[in-house]
Amino acid sequence: MLDVKKSYQERNTDYFTDDYYKYVSILRDYKGPVRRKESYYADNFREKGNALFECLGIEIVHQLHCQLKCEYCYVALDTKSESIKPVPVEEIMNIIDQAVEVDEVTGKTLFGQIAFIGGEPTLHRHLPSLLEYTLSKGLTPILVTNAVKLAKIDYARKVCLPGTVIVTHLPYLDKEGDKEHDRITRFPGYTKTLETAIQNILTIRKELNAVGQDFEIVGDFVLSNQTLQYAFGVHKFCRKNGINPFFERMRISDDQRNHHLVPGRDDMKELLNKIFEYDKTHYPQLIFKSDEVQEKDVLLKKIEYLITPAFANACSMTQTGIHVKYNQNGFGEALSCVGQSIPHGNLRKNSLQEIVNQKIKSRIFSEQETFIVGPCSVCELYHLIGCEGGCRGNANSTFHCGRASDPECLFLKEEYRMNKSVMAPENCDGCPVSDWAPCSSYVQSESILK
């Protein structure tokens, strides 16, 4: 550990906690010399996948079109818009058609998945037919929902289709939690509604399993100061019911209003270590790749549970996906993820192939490994466990730069987290998009959107 720490200090990059140096020292022994990968996208997806990019997320309803008004939500609640009408179904189908077009350079289809998001996508009355249409094109549909409408089993049957992925919120599971959940979401009776919806989803999956069919259920739980105390019980509920837990650290809102709800780092580490020990003891078959678990496997997985944005789930969206926004500027702006600010084009003005080409040309996302700055650029865990730079949206929301490091990393010393001179570049020199869309200026560039 001392040798590793000394080498960082000599390079004036001593950004990290003692836990970081301890883990890196051990992992170096296990894995030998560290090989710097080009990127997750290049090493693991572009060469091996059947599609050029993994996921196309489409906000099919306006960001504010939702039955809930969660206090920890990253959408700016004071956002103004002239219209929140859902996107016309024909327009969405056209986008899906484009997603399966063949890339002119690689010969691969553009995308493998379509994520339906918002706002609340079930408020789009044509959602069931859009899911069916996506499946008919050979794509995997992902529905990200608050599940209010799935409390009606007839509706749940229309969207819980074989081959889909249902991503739903999770209830807090006790009487006091019910009250708190309803208060936080500003939706009276939400916990009971959600419990009914989840039971409907599980019932439908059981019926499909009986005839050899299935769909995936992912439980989304936002970790904030308000929710942390309920998280462990909710995690156990997921494991017992075959729900894949996706417990994500709260993302800073677009207007910074929820910053005070960010959970403490010690509390986060205590929770995530507790969840890891529970999984290791009760569900080792779910978290380890082999029945013969070695000490290094346990350590690697333990570190994975501590990374952001969600435990044991590194986010590669900036590299492997595109997110199509529907906000106060209207529908169509295409970004690398919901938390980014550099547009690659607009689907009401550009083809999806043109947007993909622009994303690749921007390079700071498709070649994130090269252009990321700050502690993430020298962190060996980026490669040893593939954390992909934490939450790139959080980094951009905090420092207004797509190249910045993630301030919510649990292995980063407290004094550096909000230090812009350490975490983000002083200017855009060397950034491949600086001539046309400096990320420090978060302005809609008409030259790009034409």
Estimate percent helicity: 25-40%
- Gyration radius, in Å: 22 Å
Strand content: 5-15%
How many alpha or pi helices? 19
**Physical arrangement of strands within the biggest beta sheet:** 6-5-4-3-2-1-7-8-9
Order of helices and strands: HHHEHEHEHEHHEHEHHHHEEEHHHHHH
Using the coordinates shown, work out and report the CATH topology of the domain at 55-294 and 306-320: TIM Barrel
Tag the structure with descriptive keywords.
nine-stranded mixed sheet; alpha/beta; TIM Barrel; 450 residues; 38% helix; 19 helices
Molecular structure report:
This protein has 450 residues and is of the alpha/beta class. It has a domain of 255 residues: Aldolase class I (TIM Barrel, Alpha-Beta Barrel). It is 38% helix and 13% strand. It has 19 helices and nine strands. A nine-stranded mixed sheet has the order 6-5-4-3-2-1-7-8-9. Strand 7 and strand 8 form a beta hairpin. Helix 2 crosses helix 12 and helix 9 packs parallel to helix 10. The C terminus is likely disordered. This is Radical SAM domain-containing protein. InterPro entries: Aldolase_TIM, Radical_SAM_PqqE_MftC-like, rSAM, rSAM_sf. One of its GO terms (molecular function) is catalytic activity. Keywords: Iron, Iron-sulfur, Metal-binding, S-adenosyl-L-methionine.
